[in-house]
Structures are given as C-alpha cells and as structure tokens.
Write a structure and sequence with these properties.
The protein is mainly beta and 120 residues long. It has one domain (5-107): Gamma-glutamyl cyclotransferase-like (Hypothetical upf0131 protein ytfp). It is built from one helix and seven strands, in the order βββββαββ. It has one helix at 67-77, and strands spanning 5-9, 28-34, 39-43, 48-52, 59-65, 84-87, 98-101.
C-alpha cells in the first residue's frame, strides 16, 4: 500500500488499555519495540506523554496504518494542539516510524516515568 505508515503507540492505544480497540483496523501489528534512550515519558494521569531530548527508552507497539487510521489517531491525540507527530528512533526497527510527542514546555513539573513502559 502506498499510503501506509508506521506508528509507535505507547499509552492508551496499547493492547489492554482503553483505546486499544482503535488499533484493530491497522493493516499490521508488528509487535512490541523499545526506543533508543533519547526520550522521556511523563504521567498525565489517565494517559502518558513522551518528549524528545530525554534519556529513557520508551516501550510501545508498532502498527502499519493507512491514512484513514492516521487521521483518526490524529483526532484522538489532539494534533497539533495537544500532541505533535514526529519520527522516533526504535531499536531493531529500520523503517521510518512516527510517534505522538508533547512539547517539552508542557511537561514542566510532571514526574518522569523512569522505566518508559506505561503498562508496568
């Protein structure tokens, strides 16, 4: 498919979490991956966010998606008001993949989730 992309989800869209059903229409579920230790995860209460310029590896799932699912995810994530989309570097995944990031200034004063895994 020419319009397919890869997305890395790390919070409420992961299996077992409240919005995981949204990912059931993904083209492919490629499994669990870990990012390079360049990011930070913060606890926003009901869901997490990640930022760039950190030192934590983030754990999440990679899906191949089409443009319809991408638009739906953008709406769920509040792009560009709440989150922005940008590339994320993963260990052992050599294709371009994006994730949803919060702007660093928005997380001032929030606690970092040291292990980078929202499910643990």
């Amino acid at each position: 498919m020419t319009d397919s992309k890869y997305v890395f989800v790390y919070g409420s869209l992961r299996k077992g979490k409240g919005l995981s059903g949204v990912m059931s229409v993904a083209l492919d579920d490629l499994g669990v991956y870990k990012s390079k230790p360049k990011y930070n995860m913060y606890n926003l209460g009901a869901f997490p966010c990640i930022t760039k310029n950190g030192n934590t590896s983030i754990v999440g799932e990679v899906y191949e998606i089409d443009s319809d699912l991408e638009r739906r995810l953008d709406a769920i994530e509040g792009v560009p008001t709440l989150y922005i989309k940008d590339d994320i570097e993963l260990e052992g995944f050599d294709k371009p993949v994006y994730a949803y990031f919060m702007k660093s200034k928005e997380v001032q004063g929030l606690r970092i989730k040291d292990n980078g895994d929202w499910l643990s």
